Amino acid sequence: MRPALRQLKDLLASMRFAIALLSVISIAAVIGTVVRQREPLPNYVNQFGPFWAELFGALDLYTVYSAAWFLLILAFLVLSTSLCIARQAPKIARDWRDAKLSIRAQSLRAHPHHAEAELKVDAAAAPALALQRLQAAGWQARIDARPEGTLLAARKGKVNKLGYLAAHGAIVLICLGGLLDGDLLVQAAMRLQGKQLHEGSGAVEARHVLETSTPAFRANLFVPEGGKGEIARIDLPGGSVWQRLPFELELKRFIVEYYDTGMPKLFASEVLLRDADGERSARIEVNKPLIHKGYALYQSSFDDGGSRLQLRVEPLAAGQAQTLQGEVGGAALALQGTELRLEPSALRVINVEDFGQVRGSDEAARAASQPAGLGTHLGSAARDPAAKSLRNIGPSFGYKLRDAAGQAREYNHYMLPTELDGVSVFLLGVRESQAEEFRYLRAPADENASLQGWLRLRRALLDAELRQQAAQAYARAASPRADTQQQLLSSAVRVLNLFAGTERVGEVEGGLPGLSAFIERDVPQPERERISEVLLRILNGSLLELDRLARERQGVALPPPDEARQKFMAQAVMALSDAAFFPAPLLVTLESFEQRQASVFQVARAPGQKLVYLGAVLLIVGVFAMLYIRERRLWLWIAADAQGGTHWQLALASPRTGVDLDAEFDRLRTQLLSQPS
Fold first, then answer.
1. Euclidean distance between CA atoms 86 and 165, whole angstroms
2. Residue 141 and residue 155: Cα distance in Å, rounded?
3. For residue 283, how far is the Cα from the chain centroid?
4. What are the backbone angles phi and psi of residue 365, rounded to the nearest 5°?
5. Which 3 state secondary structure label does DSSP give 45?
6. What CA–CA distance (Å, rounded) separates 311 from 326?
7. Of 181, 176, 183, residue with least CA distance to 63
8. The 3-state secondary structure of 387-442, one letter per residue
């Protein structure tokens, strides 16, 4: 049993084992730097894919520094380094005290740096002369008088030995500091206090809240402008736990400044901190934390603090619009005439997007004319990473529409129109889950910079009576002959029905893909290109008449047939086509808002931080001592000779040899072995 324990101890205290542990920790630190930690799972699924995201999650790569295997490696490194110190410290202590006076005079000749000389100095006065010369050269020497002669032993750079202890002790302190400031103490506090993880659903209860006695933690504190906060959230693998603070933080004012591009330049918080001893005002900025009784409060980020929104709900088919009042993150709003509930989820006053290269309308038309290219046309607000052109496109807001079964889709709409390809459009985004990116519908703005023109045309397209009237008007305008008008009427009705999705070809729901599917099914291959051009002319002409009829019904003046009108109708066709794939029976627009911002603070209680700082200082000192301070030992043997003088033997030794040591020995030989004047 004892040999096995001895072998285990030797393994743990070996340099190879410590180097292996340090290598694994270094690799883990690289992973923790490259992979963003503690992000929502959908972000990782979107970045790595479902398989790798699940595998990396199982390996705790999203929480490297709190993973059990990482903490275990740190613990073994502490143990290994402590055993190394315990093994080497007695040897270093003995060597520190040992002046090596027991060396024999004959052995001095065995040193590589060795010299001898005959000096005309009396044997009784020679030791004093040698000691004087050594002290002048900066050596502290000890004398051993023997019957056959005198030995002087001197030493320089013995601090080098302490460098070993300082460097290894620094590793222990840094690792202990990391263990103390990690999640280990939080998990221990949860067990001691009988607390449980809050898994993100339901209200926060007392069993989810830690008391103020938790010795170390890092948490996020969300405080809306004008509000107060005294409970912070600690994110842990599998959920979160809430930490009660011994003070209350009130956000008096949130300040944010922007660059000309719209990117944030500065954000800061003016706060009022209250505790049992009173209150104090402070300003917290990025890299300028507030330190209070061992707690550090950092400006981490900012968010919406419950902005008030005035929303307009527009049906995409027939129906009446309604106006609602809501708050971001507030209660869900019931929608009249549906089983859907609207949940306002976000408001961004400034949105900086890259419009370096946006696809042209011709390309978009080609993509949207085929079902396979539809995803590209509906994809992210359409930018190419090859060229960057940052532009602030104004406020946006997000919401969810949740059905009776609890299933929800997420939407993100921009409040103001944005010019793309020379056309002013509203960007209306949707996604099925957070693992996806938003797909944007580009609805054109009308002559009043409003969305009402396109919505009017959309509702008219879904009205069978108006489609029939528009087809008749187009047929009359296109040809004066009655037989030709009848053919055009039949074709126009068929095209409008296919485009509206009331007549389907297979599983295609309408739009330009519906026309494309019809052509592929019913038109021979040689005639498809010609028929496609004819049907597109019929579609464009019929939609012009449809828009005119819809305006007449509502008493809205028809704009002049200029270039702006042409661009509006061209984009309207694309948007109407894409609307068939926009999964919503209604459209929610933002009419006005009253912004209320919030600050997100990181609250840290890190007693191990001092250990880490001390370890860092010791590590610097230790490495400097080991690398730049060279230990040297010198011996000088003096014995009387037959001519009444003395014979001097000089030897210099060092664990590290080199050119510098050779030069130093030459200087010492000149200083110590020269004839006295």
1. 10
2. 7
3. 25
4. -65, -40
5. helix
6. 8
7. 183
8. CCCEEECCCEEEEEEECCCCCEEEEEEECCCEEECCEEEEEEEEECCCCCCCEEEE
- CA gap 536, 574 in Å, rounded: 12
**Amino acid residing at 150:** T
Q: Give pLDDT tens digits for 522-559.
A: 888 888 889 899 999 999 999 999 999 999 999 999 99
pLDDT in tens, 380-417: 344 444 456 677 788 899 999 998 888 889 999 998 99
CA distances in angstroms from 32 to 39, 234, 641, listed in the order given: 12, 18, 72
Contacts of 21 (CB under 8 A, 6+ apart): 73, 76, 77, 80
Architecture category of domain 98-157+630-672 in CATH = 2-Layer Sandwich (3.30)
pLDDT tens-digit series, residues 149-161: 999 999 998 899 8
Of 262 and 275, more confident: 275
Residue 412 in contact with residue 439, Cβ under 8 Å?
Answer: no
Tokens of 505: 């070809």
Residue 359 neighbours by CB distance under 10 Å: 17
- Contacts of residue 302, defined as CB under 8 A and 6 or more positions apart, other chains included, come to 254, 256, 267, 597, 598, 599, 600
Amino acid letter at 327? Answer: E
Alpha-carbon 179 to chain mean position: 23
Instruction: State both tokens at 48.
Output: 């790595």
Alpha-carbon distance of 635 to 149, in angstroms, equals 13
Q: Are 212 and 245 in contact (CB under 8 A)?
A: yes
Query: How far separated are the first and last CA of the chain, in Å rounded?
Result: 70
For 639-658, b/e burial (b = at least 16 CB within 10 A) is: bbeeeebbbbbbbbbbeeee
Residue 13, φ and ψ in degrees, nearest 5: -90, 0
pLDDT tens-digit profile of 125-180?
999 999 999 999 889 899 999 988 999 999 998 899 899 999 999 999 999 988 88
d(CA 593, CA 425): 21
**Pick from 621, 643, 651: nearest CA to 169:** 621
* Strand partners of residue 598: 224, 303
Domain locations in the chain? 2-94, 98-157+630-672, 308-358+369-444, 459-558
Q: Beta strands 278-285 and 264-275: pairing type?
A: antiparallel
